[in-house]
Amino acid sequence: MPRVMPELETERLRIRPFTRGDLDACHRILDGGDERGMSLEQRREWLEWCVLNTRFLAELYQPPYGERAVTLRDGTLVGVVGVVPFVDSLRGGPGGVASADVALYWFIAAELRGRGLAAEAARAVVRHLFDEERLDQVIATTEPDNLASQAVMRKLGMTVERAPNPHAPRPRVIGTLTRYAFR
Ligand SMILES: CC(C)(COP(=O)(O)OP(=O)(O)OC[C@H]1O[C@@H](n2cnc3c(N)ncnc32)[C@H](O)[C@@H]1OP(=O)(O)O)[C@@H](O)C(=O)NCCC(=O)NCCS
Is residue 2 a part of any domain in this protein? Predict the structure, then answer.
């Protein structure tokens, strides 16, 4: 049996794998009005990567790395929660050895921000990663000026550390949450 993350449900949301039918909604939410956004063709490629990533990682019995669609309970796409590998080769750990972490990413449609949707979606994914995947720890990364993302980290109970040096390699803000600190 391939290993898949089941559809997760919260009070207001569903978190499910992307399908190719999400293209138009994805392009509108992720790229609409953003001059740095992808073209429709680039977004189609990204979506194809999401769909195939879900399928082939599951066949490799790997944890559910990749992007997941966040929808309202009526099916309307409102955002993305990503679970991505994070290897900090630039900093390294003790002895200069880099360790691998599981990092979360979140994005909510601009018109729906500030209603707790990112924290609600991320909380469901974190619960799954701790309870079902038995992870010890998850992290999230961002930059100092992304205060909304740091607020989501804190709402999840993450310890948020900021690089003391503004010229430190990115990411300069890292939130860490252990399974024992998660409620
Ligand atoms: C980061 C993001 C996902 C948050 O989504 P959201 O649904 O608005 O998040 P939530 O409502 O759960 O929480 C947002 C928190 O940020 C706070 N916040 C928002 N803007 C803020 C600002 N400029 N300064 C301080 N806090 C801020 C809100 O008050 C809220 O905290 P509260 O509930 O304690 O009041 C959303 O802003 C987004 O999609 N940004 C673009 C993508 C992005 O930057 N993703 C992170 C990449 S590292």
Answer: no
CA-wise closest residue to 21 among 42, 44, 40: 44
Residues 179 and 149 sit within 8 Å (Cβ to Cβ): no
Assess if residue 183 is contained within a domain: no
Ligand 1 atom, smallest distance to 140 CA: 48
Digits of tens for pLDDT over the chain (183 positions)? 556 778 999 999 999 999 999 999 999 999 997 889 999 999 999 999 999 998 898 888 887 789 999 999 999 999 999 999 898 877 766 677 778 899 999 999 999 999 999 999 999 999 999 999 899 999 999 999 999 999 999 999 999 999 888 888 889 999 999 999 998
Is residue 115 included in any domain, yes or no?
yes
Domain annotation covers residue 109: yes
Helix, strand, or coil (residue 151): helix
CATH number at residue 171: 3.40.630.30
For the chain, the domain total comes to 1
Which of 11, 117, 139, 152 to mutate to test ligand 1, by most ligand atoms within 8 A of the CB atom? Answer: 152
3-state secondary structure of 159: strand
Question: pTM for the full model?
Answer: 0.94
Look up residue 101 and give its two tokens. Answer: 């972490």
**Residue 180 C-alpha to ligand 1 middle, in angstroms?**
25
Host domain of residue 78: 8-178
